[in-house]
Structures are given as structure tokens and as C-alpha cells.
Amino acid sequence: LKCGMRTTKCQLLVTSLCVMLLGLSIATLSTVTHYGLHFTLISNVSLDSNAYRVIHHTAFYFGICLSMTLILAALLSSAATVRESQCLTAMGFFCFALAFCGLIPAACWRYTHSTEVEDSMMDVYDFVYEEVRRNTSSFRRHELTAIHEAFLCCGKHSPFGDTTNVENKTCPPGQVQDEGQ
């Protein structure tokens, strides 16, 4: 019986360690995504009417809250295992329940709004591109050049066919031939 209890405690401690690593990795991913060049570039350029900035910040804060909940649950579970405390065990399970209840709406949102992030990013790009196409002295040209360099893209196909001037001025050298990519 004693050997079985030790084995169970070891399994619970290893599980708590894995949950803690999961929480740390979610926090790291949220931070890298929030402060990464690609995402901050689009977020800084986006208009107030565009939904991307709201999605960008919401995803970051949701990820940080989820990671902190998982880390707290892992710490409580570890302490409950070592001290054999029913109160700490209940608090750990409560934190796991909170994390699970937070993931359900996130999964539903992801399923029902599957293309919203991509569409809002493309709306930002289209806005900046059209601003540069209409007014070549615009400060948006620097933003468009930064987008082209960050995403390794170069322009887009226009039904009007007058995009080559924009690509020549905003695409990194060597990518002008990849126009529309």
C-alpha cells in the first residue's frame, strides 16, 4: 500500500510539472506572438475601425490569463500532493475547471470566426496598399515597405493593372519579380 501511494504521488508530481511547463509555454507563445514583428507591425498600422488590434490584444491577455491559471493549478496540485491536503487539492481542481471553462468559449470563437484574423490583416494591407497607390508621397509607403520586408511579400494583383509603380518603390530588392506573392 505504501509503495502504491509513493507511485501515485510521483505520478501526480510529474503531471503537475508537465502542466506547469504547459502554462509556461503558453505564456511564452502569447508573449512572442504579441510582441513579434509580424503581429505588432500590422497592429500598429491598423485603423481603429479594423478588428485586428482588438483580436491581437484579446488573444494576448487570454493567453496570459490561461497560462497563469495553469501555473497556479500546477503549484496548488504539487503542494496538495506533498502535504496531502484536501483543501489545496480542491483549489487545484477549481483552477483546472476555470482553465477548462475558459477554453470552451475560445474554441467556439475559433470555430465560428475561423477567417476573421486573416481577413482583418488583409484589410489592413489593402488599406495601406491603396493609400500608397493613390498618393506616392504618403507616410504609408514606409509602412508598406516594412510589411513587404517582414512578410517577404511583394504587392498584389490589381484589376486595374497599375501596381508596378508601387512595387518598384516598396518591395525589397530582388522581390519585385515576385509581384503579387
UniProtKB/TrEMBL annotation:
Chief localization: membrane
Domain of life: Eukaryota
TM ranges: 12-35, 55-76, 88-112
Keyword Manganese: no
Disulfide-linked positions: 154-171
GO cellular component: membrane
Keyword Transcription in annotation: no
Localization terms from the record: Membrane
Gene3D superfamilies in alphabetical order: Tetraspanin
Topology class, membrane: Multi-pass membrane protein
Keywords (A to Z) from UniProt: Disulfide bond, Membrane, Transmembrane, Transmembrane helix
Family designation: Belongs to the tetraspanin (TM4SF) family.
Protein name: Tetraspanin
Organism the protein comes from: Copsychus sechellarum
